[in-house]
Structure formats: C-alpha cells, structure tokens
Design brief:
The protein is of the alpha/beta class. The protein has helices at 103-106, 140-146, 162-169, 185-196, 211-220, 236-243, 266-277, 331-341, 350-361, 363-389, 409-418, 448-459, and strands at 17-19, 21-23, 26-28, 70-72, 84-86, 89-91, 124-125, 178-182, 202-207, 223-230, 233-234, 249-252, 282-287, 308-313, 325-329, 401-405, 421-422, 424-425, 436-440. It binds pyridoxal-5'-phosphate. Pyridoxal-5'-phosphate binds next to helix 4. Pfam families: Aminotran_1_2.
C-alpha cells in the first residue's frame, strides 16, 4: 500500500520508526503484504516484527537503491506529513518534497535485520513448538527396515511406497483417490500452493495461523484473507465473507491448531462444509500436529473429494528427521502436484517412507505417541494453570504451545528478554493486529513457575 497523499517517489511518512537493516544499498523498512525482495527477508522468523502502519511505503518505482520497510515502534500511528525518524536522522516528510537521503547516511553498518535476539547462555528458549526428542520413537530398527524396501535407488518418481500408503490409509479420515508422500508438512503446503495457486490470487487462512504458512503465502505473492476463529475452529460467517473475494484456496488446520491449541469440532467442520458448498475454492487441510492431537483425524474430503487436499505431517508424532508427510486428493490434483515436484525433489526418500511405515505398524510407537501426548498435555496445562493463578486465564487446549494474550507485544518481548526468556511475538503468526505471545510448552519440563512469573510481568505494562 502506498502512503496516504504520497507519491511513489516521495520519502516515507510517519511519526517514528526504525530502519531494520540493509541489503546492499537497500534499506529494509515496512513492506507488509507485499512480496519480500531479499532472501534474508523472506521468513517471519528472520524478519523483524511487522509494522502495523497504514502508511506502507513502496520503493520508488524502478529505483533499485531504495527498497524500504518501516517498522513503527508506535503501532498504528503513522500520519501523513509528520516527521519520520530513520536511524539517527529525522527526515521531514513532506511528500515529494524531500529527496531520499543516501542509504549510507542512515544506517549503522553493523545493524542487521531480525528480531530473534541474542540471548545469554542459559536462555529459556520457548520459541520452538516442536516435539521433545526424548519422547519420540527410536529410529534404528525402522531405518533398517526402510533400507530394505523395494525399488531402492531407482530413479522412478514413485508417489508413495505401498507400505506407507497402507499404513496411513487405515486411519485416513476419508476414502481418498490418490496419495503422495512429501518431504514434511510444509513441503507439502509449499508444493501444493506453487503447483495450483498463482501469484496474485488470494488465499483464505485462519487468523492466527502458523508462521511458516504465512511465509509461504507471502513469498508466493498471494493476497492473504484472514478468517476469524473461536474455540471450535474457523468461524463460518468469517469464511463466508472471505469467500466473497473468491479465493483460490481455503487453507486451514482441520484437527488441532498448532498455534492456539484449539481442536476443530466436528459440527464446526460440517458448518464450514456448508459454507464451502457454494464455492469452487480449493480446500487445503493441513494437519500439521498430526497424532499429537487426542482428537481423531477429520476432513472435508468425504464431501468435496475432487477439490480437497488433506495433508498429514508425521513430524510431531514420529520425528521431524523423517521429513515426512502424506497428502491425499483426487488423482488429477495429485498429478499436478507431482508434476510440479519433478522440478525439484521428484520423490520422497523411499528409505524414510519405509521407516515411517514400519513405525506406524509397530504398536510400541502408538504407545509412545500416546505417552508423549499426555506429557505434552501436562506441560501445557502446568503453564496454563500457573498463568491462570497469576490472573491470565488461558482457554483449554492441546498441543505444543500456549497462545497467551498480552497488552503489548513489544513490552512483553522486552520484559521476557530481560529475564533471558525467548518466545515468539504473536504478530509473526498473523496478518492482522495481534496482542499475543506464542510460548512453546513441549519441552518445558521444569522452570514452569519461573516462566509463569516472567509472563505475568510481561502481560501488562
Ligand atoms: C500448521 C502446521 N503445518 C505443517 C507443519 C509441518 O511440519 P513439518 O514440515 O515439520 O512436517 C507444522 C509444524 O509445525 C505446522 O504447525
């Protein structure tokens, strides 16, 4: 979006902001909802907290020296005609009247973008909502089996090994026409979107959602339409409104939401199906948390077999180093996805597929998955209870993290950083204004009280 009253060649407008960094002679300032221009600027994890400013400023057309992203410290308050502070220099922002200063004038050379922070040794790192490695099944036997599956080292681009297809089909939430193994859940989403959704179209997605899903969508250059959610999943009315913009796809988590910990109720899924009935939108179901969820898998595939793509990631239940997910859809859609894959991986390691199939057939794995689920629940509940005792109620949920409301994300992040606790700001998971932090609980086996004390301090300025 261009700044109000500004011409494309004018300088940035606003009250206060910071330069995030430099890429060659380019400055990185706010460029929300537009396609990242620099490799290091692609991921929400590596980039600084997004700016909420309505005065989004684009680089002067055709001038490669100035690609600006402005991160406001003060929220929504950029105003046309006010002074904008770039690094140490105040720049009067009379649109069109002020020549852009030279990049070298403005940027301390050592300044680099990003908001991950450099924490001291002993940091309590609650940023990664991944599985606890100690709770995952052992891989040695499974890998030995994987190394003996048929057709090893053939260049045949097979879609899925029969053992894996049989193992997942038993618990698949609908009768699917075709299956494909991919190199993890995000690889599946990335490949689907690149194969089937063109840049410039729009995609409806839950608000909030997983940071990487937003990364993939933003990188592809699609318009993101947020769909509001409650304690049962995406809201039908919000989806209906989103569908008025005729998105190419609705991408959602049909089982356990990886950020909020909400499980989609079966009645809500039915209602979403009713809303989707009147559209031809592609339905992409991303079951990223998989069998860490206590709820059974569910899908709209039984109702919309020809336009649903259902993805199950095995990373949280069997281990992220298997790099495996399985997707299903109609045969023509799977053909299209597979044909896009021939530009890159071509197929997914048959060794890893065989290993996963072996684990899925082994009752001991299911025993471990069940035990891990319980431990994740205890860790999540322990922090949620400790926060409730400190006056921060958290709705019930499951999974690997807590979505904690805060009054101000910057205040919360600074307060926690000062106590050497790393979490993610909610804005990384959202394209709308956000007042949350995402706190991983999957490995929080001790120091829960310490984390709760710090979060309570961080909650309200
Ligand atoms: C919503 C969602 N989708 C997909 C994934 C896929 O993970 P992976 O690529 O490790 O299989 C995740 C992992 O955190 C997730 O949260």
């Amino acid at each position: 979006m261009q700044a109000p009253n500004a011409t494309r060649s004018s300088w940035a407008i606003g009250t206060s902001g910071v330069i995030l960094g430099r890429h060659g002679r380019s400055l990185l300032v706010c460029r929300k909802n537009s396609r990242p221009q620099h490799p290091g600027d692609r991921s929400r994890n590596e980039r600084a907290d997004p700016c909420r400013c309505p005065a989004h400023w684009d680089a002067p057309a055709g001038d490669p020296r100035y690609r600006l992203r402005i991160a406001c410290q003060s929220g929504n308050d950029l105003r046309s005609g006010e002074t904008f502070r770039l690094g140490d220099k105040a720049v009067a922002a009379d649109p069109g009247a002020v020549a852009p200063p030279a990049a070298d004038d403005l940027l301390p050379p050592q300044f680099t973008p990003g908001s991950s922070g450099n924490y001291a040794a002993g940091v309590l790192d609650l940023t990664l909502a991944g599985p606890d490695a100690a709770l995952l099944p052992r891989l040695a036997e499974a890998m030995a089996y994987g190394a003996s599956v048929d057709d090893l080292n053939s260049y045949e681009r097979s879609r899925i090994v029969p053992e894996l297809k049989d193992a997942v089909s038993e618990r698949w939430p609908y009768e699917a026409e075709a299956f494909l193994a991919t190199n993890g859940g995000y690889n599946a989403v990335y490949t689907i979107l690149h194969a089937l959704v063109s840049s410039g179209s729009s995609v409806a997605i839950e608000h909030p959602t997983a940071m990487r899903l937003l990364d993939i969508l933003e990188d592809l250059g699609v318009k993101i339409i947020p769909v509001a959610c409650d304690g049962e999943g995406p809201l039908p009315d919000s989806l209906r409104e989103a569908l008025q913009q005729r998105p190419a796809a609705f991408l959602f988590q049909p089982r356990l939401h990886s950020v909020t910990g909400v499980t989609v109720s079966s009645s809500r899924l039915d209602q979403l199906g009713d809303v989707l009935e009147d559209s031809d939108t592609l339905i992409i179901e991303d079951d990223g948390v998989g069998d860490v969820s206590a709820a059974p898998p569910q899908s709209l595939g039984g109702r919309f077999a020809e336009r649903t793509i259902h993805i199950l990631s095995l990373s949280k239940s069997l281990g992220p180093d298997l790099r495996l997910a399985v997707l299903s859809s109609s045969a023509p859609i799977v053909d299209q996805i597979q044909s896009y894959r021939s530009f890159s991986a071509g197929w997914t390691s048959r060794i890893l597929q065989g290993a996963a199939a072996w684990l899925l057939r082994d009752p001991a794995s299911w025993q471990l998955i069940g035990e891990a689920r319980e431990i994740y629940q205890q860790r999540r509940d322990a922090l949620a209870d400790a926060l409730s005792e400190r006056g921060i109620p958290i709705p019930p949920g499951q999974g690997l993290c807590l979505w904690v409301p805060v009054v101000s994300e910057p205040f919360a992040m600074v307060t926690l950083a000062a106590r050497n606790i790393a979490v993610n700001p909610g804005s990384k998971f959202s394209v709308l204004p956000s007042s949350h932090i995402r706190v991983a609980t999957s490995t929080l086996s001790h120091r829960c009280e310490e984390a709760a004390d710090a979060i309570a301090l961080a909650h309200t300025p």
